[in-house]
Amino acid sequence: MRILISNDDGYFATGIAALAGALASEHEVTVCAPERDRSGASNSLTLDRPLSVRRAPSGFYYVNGTPTDCVHLAATGFLPEPPDMVVSGVNHGANMGDDTIYSGTVAAATEGYLLGVPAIAVSLASRNPQHFETAARVAAELIQRAAREPFRGAVLLNVNVPDLPYAELKGIKTTRLGRRHKSAPVIKDENPRGEPIWWIGPVGAAADAGEGTDFHAVAAGYVSVTPLSIDLTAHAQLDFVASWLPL
Ligand code: MN
């Protein structure tokens, strides 16, 4: 298959090299990723300036834009043909529960999905990720499966892999997104000129990590696979809001 790889950690990241390495022998792989770490970029497009694509000695293309920019430009004109699949990652850290809203890793996959291309986001669920080869191998197996049994229509899978040697994985589970507690407060500091500066605080701990969630599966040593949809409509509130409207 023709596979487009991107990420949000930058084209130089260990995770993207592991992913490209695991897929290159069986597939036609193109890597197009941000020139710097754009973790937390979500689904942002750069609309106020043009984008440049450059090629690193590794053969990877890098773009002065967001993960979404990378997939958008690669899949809508930069590549001679659109890819058969978009794979994003391997992210340096988990993307579970509410993380998916902020994640540039998930956003790169989402852009493929929105363009009609099946897409997989892969994250190594750890604060100090080590076993990138495990996550890359899991991604290769999922793609092998997709090549044998294609998805019916566009599919967006969010995959989180425990940071373990491959042999220690317990298996693979289909999950729903859990929920996190709200993130820690911003952290106030001072720059060298005595002016206040602010750091966004760390993410909150899992609030809904019950049976069936991505948090639960990964904590138990399973690969978590969550199919995502992009319809943000609160279907359960449609009737209430209709009756609440003043006219
Ligand atoms: Mn990242």
Could you say which small molecules are bound to this protein? manganese (II) ion
Give the number of DSSP strands: 13
Assembly type of the chains comes to: single chain
Distance between the termini: 54 Å
Q: Can you write the helix and strand succession as a string?
A: EHEEEHEHHEHEEEEEEHEH
Side by side, the strands of the main sheet go 3-4-2-1-5-6-7-13-8
Binned, the helix content reads 25-40%
Q: Can you tell me the CATH superfamily? A: Survival protein SurE-like phosphatase/nucleotidase
CATH architecture assignment = 3-Layer(aba) Sandwich
- Low-confidence regions: none
Question: Can I get a quick summary?
Answer:
The chain has helices spanning 14-23, 67-78, 99-102, 104-114, 132-148, 214-219, 238-244, and strands spanning 2-6, 28-34, 53-55, 61-63, 85-92, 119-125, 156-162, 171-174, 179-180, 187-190, 196-199, 206-208, 222-227.
Give keywords.
7 helices, 247 residues, globular, 13 strands, alpha/beta, single chain, binds manganese (II) ion, 9-stranded mixed β-sheet, Stationary-phase Survival Protein Sure Homolog, Chain: A, two-stranded antiparallel ribbon
Provide a descriptive summary of the structure in words.
The chain is of the alpha/beta class. It has a single domain, classed as Stationary-phase Survival Protein Sure Homolog, Chain: A (3-Layer(aba) Sandwich). Helix content is 27%, strand content 26%. It has 7 helices and 13 strands. The strands form 3 sheets. Strands 3-4-2-1-5-6-7-13-8 form a 9-stranded mixed sheet, sandwiched between helices. Strand 1, helix 1 and strand 2 form a beta-alpha-beta unit. Helix 1 packs parallel to helix 5. The longest helix has 17 residues. The site of manganese (II) ion (MN) has 6 residues, from strand 5.
